[in-house]
Every structure is written in C-alpha cells, then in structure tokens.
Amino acid sequence: MVRNTLPDDEVTARIEAALYSAGRPLTVDELVRASGTNSKEKTVRIVGELVKKTKSTFKAIEITPLEDGSYVFQLKPSFTPLIRKFAQRPIISGATQKTLTYIAYEQPVTSKRLVQIRGSQVYQHVKELEQMQFVEHESLGRLKVYRTTEKFKEYFGITDLNSMKSKLVAETNRQNPKPAGKPEEA
User: What is the CATH topology of the domain spanning 8-78?
Assistant: First the structure.
C-alpha cells in the first residue's frame, strides 16, 4: 500500500481551504478527502489544532466542531450584528431570517400563524425559503403547515432541534433581557 506523505503544513492548508470555501459544515470524511491523506486520525488531529489556533489567534472568526461531529469555519455569533452592514450580499435578508427562525422554533407552524406573527410579507419569505430548500410545507386543505428541511439542518449544522430551540431562547434572552421574565404567549 502506498502511503501519502504530504507534509503537515500542506495538509493543514488544504483543510483550511476546504473549510473556508465550503460555506457550510464539513464532515470528517469530507475533510479527509480535502486533506489529501487517507488518515482520519491525522485529519482529526490537524483540525483539532486548527480549532485551538483560531481560538487563540482570531478574535472574530473560528473553526468549531458541531454536535454531529462536523466542523465549520464561521464568524463568531457575537459578531453577526456588527458585520451585517458590511456583508455584500447576505444569503437571507434579516426579515426572512426572522421568519426562518420562527418556523424553526415553532415547527410545525401553520401559514395562518405565520401571517399573524410576521405579517403578510411572510408569503415572500416562505417562497424564498422554499426555493432555498430550507423549509417545506404540507397542505391540509387550504391551510399550509411549514417545517424546516434536512438541508436546513445540514446547512446550519443542527442535529437536535430541541437543543437548537434552547439556544435560540438563550440568545434571544441575552440580546433582549426582560426584567420580569418572559411573558407567556396566549
């Protein structure tokens, strides 16, 4: 068997390039292919080193492991509000992101409820999200019921919807602290 003996610097550069250019989480198997080695152990070791390096070197970006074992190169979440005005073309507008967040949190959610919460512009948001294959619907008579798709979970690195919901609540509470606690919705 011929062993691939790329230097660690080259393997590291290939992994960095793959994570940077993918724009989505990459599995360990994908990183092994990108690394130019056949060694899962070497790839995992180098990715671990990159995770530590980004934490100690960079202030706003990171390579982070996700719950499903994949890795993503991303802006640290605390910097998202700051860079919105600098991003050339966000993949999803802020209003559409809010609609997607609401669908993800409340799913399954009816079109009637979405309009009540987000207004009539929600129809355009949902159309865009369906085109991106982040949400899908089921028709129950004249009513549509929306939920997120597998592509949504893969793109955002979500393996457990309940864990995601807890994180959304925590982030919302962190950004909008309410002195008397969260009011109950009727």
Answer: Arc Repressor Mutant, subunit A (1.10.10)
At the second CATH level, the architecture of 94-175 is Orthogonal Bundle (1.10)
SS3 for 60-114, per residue? CEEEEECCCCCEEEEECHHHHHHHCCCCCCCCCCHHHHHHHHHHHHHCCEEHHHH
Q: Are 38 and 168 in contact (CB under 8 A)?
A: no
Q: What is the DSSP string of 115-183?
A: HHHH-TTHHHHHHHHHHTTSEEEEEETTEEEEEE-HHHHHHHT-S-HHHHHHHHHHHHHHHS--TT-PP
Domain with CATH 1.10.10.10 in the chain: 8-78, 94-175
- Segment 150-180, tens digit of pLDDT: 888 877 777 777 777 777 677 667 766 655 4
Task: Judge if the upstream peptide bond of residue 108 is cis by omega within 30 degrees of 0.
Answer: yes
